[in-house]
Amino acid sequence: MNPYQNAAETIAAVDRELRAWANGLLISAGLGDIRVDDPDSPSRVKIEADKLAPFPKPASEPGATISLLGRGEGNIGVPEPWPEVGRLMTHGLELVFPKVEGKGTRPEHLTTVMPLENMPGPVRDWYATQGEVEGTESWLFTRDGRKMARLPSLEWRPSMLAVMKYTTSVEGDISVNTMQAYGVLAVGAYMERTIKVTLPPLPMAENVLGLAEALATVLPTDQQARLLSLCARLKAPQDQLFALLPITEDWTLAVQVSLGAGPLLAPSVKPVVNTGMQMPGGGR
């Protein structure tokens, strides 16, 4: 699934849950005779999508990416469990790519490249499946007749924040007080503040978790089990909370959504870990 398909599925899932949430509120309020978007109901609340717009302010361009490689804190704005995944992958990289002592003001860092033949089996196999192409975007290149593997970079692309706006109306037999229905929805948005939505796995290149699973094999047993568990979790549907916005003159119901976020894996792009150790990029 690509990011655009994921955005479409996320919006559809939030839309379904919002309507189910509104229906549940009416039932809880004793207004079960008023159904949401039910053409067979004598009285019904019609929830109509109005627009989806950037929120809380217009988005001019994507935000700066955030490095996931590090052994400490500093992944503000990155959702769980990616900060932990990044830390565990960093431990694995430190066991695969030798450290180079710092000189002067330059901190200790990991070597830029590593002979493919000297890598642990699963990590070597992962690199071999990436292949070799022309240019610095290649994971492998040949130096003095030896296949060399480039140090990876793993970054987080921040999400675009937007709001899904809806208008509502009561149709059919309005012998039940229409204002009651509007009031229940308004109080629900004010009191509950969030809805929980089950979403498909986040879209990412298959090689992202493949590298994580390969690096897990070089970690101590407890860290290996934890990283593999997190990889399995990221392959499964996820529950996520979405904020309900209080009713205003501009909308009757609204949900804030985040779209387009995800991990970006690439070779040799000068990542920096959060402890001060630099992991430089490089080329041939």
How many distinct beta strands? 14
The major sheet is characterized as: 6 strands, mixed
Strand content: 25-35%
Evaluate the radius of gyration.
Answer: 25 Å
Helix content: 25-40%
- Mean pLDDT, to the nearest integer, reads 86
Helix and strand topology:
Elements lengths: L2 H26 L5 E3 L6 E12 L11 E2 L14 H15 L2 E2 L8 E2 L2 E3 L5 H10 L9 E4 L2 E5 L1 E6 L2 E13 L5 H15 L1 E6 L6 H11 L4 H14 L3 E7 L8 E7 L2 E6 L17
Parallel strand pairs: 1-2
Antiparallel strand pairs: 2-10, 3-9, 4-5, 6-8, 7-8, 9-14, 10-13, 11-12, 12-13
Keywords:
single chain; 284 residues; three-stranded antiparallel sheet
What do these coordinates show?
The strands form four sheets. This protein has a six-stranded mixed beta sheet. Helix 3 (121-130) packs antiparallel against helix 5 (206-216). It is α+β, with helices and mostly antiparallel strands and 284 residues long. The model is unreliable at 280-284 (pLDDT under 50). The protein is built from six helices and 14 strands.
Entry summary:
The chain is α+β, with helices and mostly antiparallel strands and 284 residues long.
